[in-house]
Each structure stands twice: as C-alpha cells, then as structure tokens.
C-alpha cells in the first residue's frame, strides 16, 4: 500500500510545473502557408481561459491580445461554450509561428495547461524555370507565369515579401500599387505580373509560386534593369545658371509621338506627366510643371531656388522605341552686395 502511494505522488509531481498541472502535451504538424487549429477543451466552471506562447498571452477569453498587431490578421479564437471548446486558429502560418503553445485555465484553484508544440514543415520546393529578363528604365515589363489546372495558393513574391496573392496586390507603397498589376487568364492558365514605368529598385529576383500535388512549385525570373543609354539618345546636355531665391525654368521640347515624358533627378522621378512625384512638402510648393502640348513644351519651373537644388536634371521621354534625354545641369550662385559708405 505504501509503495502504491509513492507511485501516485510521483505521477502527479511529474505533471506539475511551478503549481501548473499539464493535462496534455502533444505535437502538431502543418506546412508553411496552411491554416491550423490548435484545440483546447475546458470543463464547466473553468475561469481565466487563455492561449499563451513564450512571447506572452495570445488571447484572453474571445479577445486577441492587442500587442500582437500582425498576428491579429492571422490568428482567431473559435470558442463554443456548449461544447466547452476554446480553439486557436492560425492562418498563413510561417516558420516564426512554430514552437510551444498552451491553453491555460483555472479550475478549482489550480492552473491547468493543455500544451501543443507546433511544427511548421516546409513543402519541397520545385523550381520549374529560372530565367533572366532585361528591360530599361521607364519601360513596362511583363513577368510570365503559367499554372496548371488544380494549382492553388498562386502568388508572386520577391525577397521583401508577397507582391500579389490571387488578384489582390499586397504592396504597401502607394506608387508601387499604381505601377504593379496582376494579369490573370484562367482559360489560358496565365498569372502574369505587369510592372509599368520600371526603375532601378525593381531589379532583382521574382518568383511565381503555387501549391500543386502537395508540392510548392516556383517559376523564377531575375529582372535586370539596363540603365546605359547610348550618347546618340542624349539630345542635349547644357548648363543653366540661377541665383538663390530666384525662379528658374528648365526647358524641355518634345516631338509629336513622344510618350512617358517626365523630369528626373538622381535616383528619383520629379514629375510624370502633370503630376509631381516629390514627397517633401516644401519642395512640392516650389516645383511646378509648365506644359504646352501645342508648342511641345514640358518645362520644369523651380521657384525660390536654394543651393541643394543645384545638380543634374534630365527630361526623359520614349520615342520610336528608344529613351531620349535632354540634360540640364543647374548651377546656383549667391548674390553679393557691396555697400559703399559715403
């Protein structure tokens, strides 16, 4: 009898950690991108029911913890008081979601836990194609992707994250959302990514990814933005002089048939059409486009010039399949006043 009592006590102590009773401890496997449900059952009378992981409280009752702002879009609590269920649903899981989770509650003065260790397994990735594609600054480029019947979770990605999922763009930058577009044709099985007005920052590796037959299939494209322009396409290269505080006009003439006309400087587009693309509010007040379609003029007016406005500007356009440039180097001087005492 004494021996049996010792065995029972040892069993209880093995299931306790700092006063917490572990009712269950299991493993659950899923794959990257899947939706998984971690289950938890609670009896009548249980209080302070919550889901936790090593980072802290994930959910308390039916409310997700406000600190997990990113997870609030992917995590959800599914509670059923009749069945005594308090399940945690996680969608679009990734490697950072793996680890130990536990459903915790208080029953009769005791804290109990139901533990789940979540393992995120990666599908074997099969690279169907890996090619290079070249284009020039200002061009529109189409990155092709073909998908078979039955493929699911089709998306375009690059190293920064998901660009598009289905027909929805996932880009945060407002300018990129205007330039990127997904062209889908279900009949042909096309899921192409179209990028308008490409710039240097668009270069790099893209891949079209899909789930098919339990595998992740990828079609990779490395986009190269060729920036070298033959000298014969630089129509003019001149200097313009102004003084601090003055208004200067940088002139640009465009012929009939020219498209995608813009003013550029360094790594940025200043104006595209009649729209300024300048983020600094003070600069937006000083810069203006003066266009005259009849005369073929697309001039850049800068009022109240300052020293930092000096440098190389160029008016760029597409004509006959080529990029044409008219370059202007702006030099800003200072007025000097000489006082004569009589």
UniProtKB/TrEMBL annotation:
* UniProt GO BP: cell surface receptor signaling pathway; cellular response to lipopolysaccharide; immune response
Q: Which PROSITE patterns does this chain map to?
A: IG_LIKE
Membrane topology classification = Single-pass type I membrane protein
Signal sequence coordinates: 1-19
Alphabetical GO CC annotations of the entry are:
external side of plasma membrane
Which Gene3D superfamilies does its entry note? Answer: Immunoglobulins (2.60.40.10)
Q: Where in the cell is it found?
A: Cell membrane
Q: What Pfam families is this protein classified in?
A: V-set
Q: Which residues form the Ig-like domain?
A: 19-117, 138-222, 245-329
Presence of the UniProt keyword Oxidoreductase in the record: no
Q: Which UniProt keywords apply?
A: Cell membrane, Disulfide bond, Glycoprotein, Immunoglobulin domain, Membrane, Receptor, Signal, Transmembrane, Transmembrane helix
Q: Is the Disulfide bond keyword given for this protein? A: yes
Q: What is this protein called?
A: Ig-like domain-containing protein
**To which species is this protein native?**
Mytilus galloprovincialis (Mediterranean mussel)
High-level lineage: Eukaryota, Metazoa, Spiralia, Lophotrochozoa, Mollusca
